[in-house]
Design brief:
five-stranded antiparallel sheet; 106 residues; mainly beta; 0% helix
Length: 106
Amino acid sequence: SKEPKVLCHQRITENNDIFILKSPYPNPFNASINIPYVIAKNDGKVTFTITNIMGQEVANIELGTQSRGRYSYEWQPKSDVPTGIYIIDMYVNGNMIQRNKVVYMK
């Protein structure tokens, strides 16, 4: 299968060997995007925040405490979310773990 194009992949903290945000796909996307991530060692309370490039939050997704394993969350933007570049931040136990940039095209 074709690998998705990664526009930005940034490691934010030293915790990323425990919690890993993979590259969301497809990117660019139009209807929905899959956000894969890994809980490698310890359980963690997972939250995603999605902001536009001006820093305005368009989604705050609290997934609760999750145990070790591989996961994927499918984000479907609400109808009022415009085309543009968005930042997906992964937080575990309140700490920012990683960040990815994605392109939304209606």
